[in-house]
Design goal:
Blueprint: H1 4-15, H2 19-31, H3 49-60, H4 68-75, E1 79-80, H5 90-99, H6 114-122, E2 125-132, E3 143-149, E4 156-162, H7 175-181, E5 188-194, H8 195-205
Antiparallel strand pairs: 1-4, 2-3, 2-5, 3-4
Helix pairs in contact: 1-2, 1-3, 1-8, 2-3, 3-4, 3-5
Length: 209
């Protein structure tokens, strides 16, 4: 498993950011008690999948979140719309995916049908967070969508998480539906992490030090 410095470096490389920037985010959420590792250098404990999930969430807020710990608090505990996820919130679900094998699916011959190609393309949006900016934002739902490839050619999965109950009973959600339900909103902020990025982070976590 990767150390904290190795994980920060891997996340920085995957997201196209400077190592120092991600290390600062890691330091901030560790000070808030959101990271489990202790020690530094060779004595530091390895990062857990949950640590990596939390770091990924706050880095998604890069450049727009004034406070990384507050951003994590806003998004990490969001609940799934789909009850089949056994009550797991966003950070727990991300930890499961990062800690197993978040893979890049091959586009096989069986993907000739249009809907399969569309699913393959959407799976490149591995993690998407979106929320309403401005004074309205704090009172309205924040949303996260996670997509992944199921093993052995089992297609693609999608899970949607929200920060507060919605006025409609839904199992999926996007920016268009958010604007439809709340027609008075103005700016919707969206951050998307590519499949390649989360695959790199997942692989880095499992590398032995």
């Amino acid at each position: 498993m990767a150390s904290s410095i190795e994980m920060a470096s891997a996340v920085a490389a995957a997201m196209g950011l400077e190592d120092e920037t991600v290390q600062l985010y890691l330091k901030n959420i560790r000070a808030a008690g959101a990271i489990s590792f202790k020690g530094y250098g060779r004595s530091a404990a390895s990062m857990t999948p949950l640590d990596a999930a939390r770091l990924l969430i706050v880095v998604v807020g890069y450049g727009v979140a004034r406070n990384s710990a507050a951003f994590l608090k806003d998004f990490a505990p969001m609940e799934a719309l789909n009850q089949k996820l056994n009550g797991k919130n966003l950070e727990q679900f991300l930890a499961d995916r990062i800690g197993t094998d978040w893979r890049t699916p091959p586009l096989q011959r069986g993907f000739s049908a249009r809907h399969h190609k569309e699913a393959f393309t959407k799976a490149q949006e591995a993690l998407k967070l979106f929320w309403i900016e401005g004074t309205q934002g704090a009172k309205l739902p924040r949303v996260a969508v996670v997509r992944w490839a199921r093993p052995k050619g089992g297609g693609f999965g999608v899970a949607t998480f929200v920060s507060r109950p919605l006025p409609l009973k839904l199992t999926s959600f996007d920016e268009g539906r958010l604007a439809e339900i709340y027609p008075d909103i103005g700016l919707i902020q969206t951050r998307t992490v590519s499949l390649r990025s989360v695959v790199d982070i997942s692989e880095a976590l499992r590398v032995s030090t």
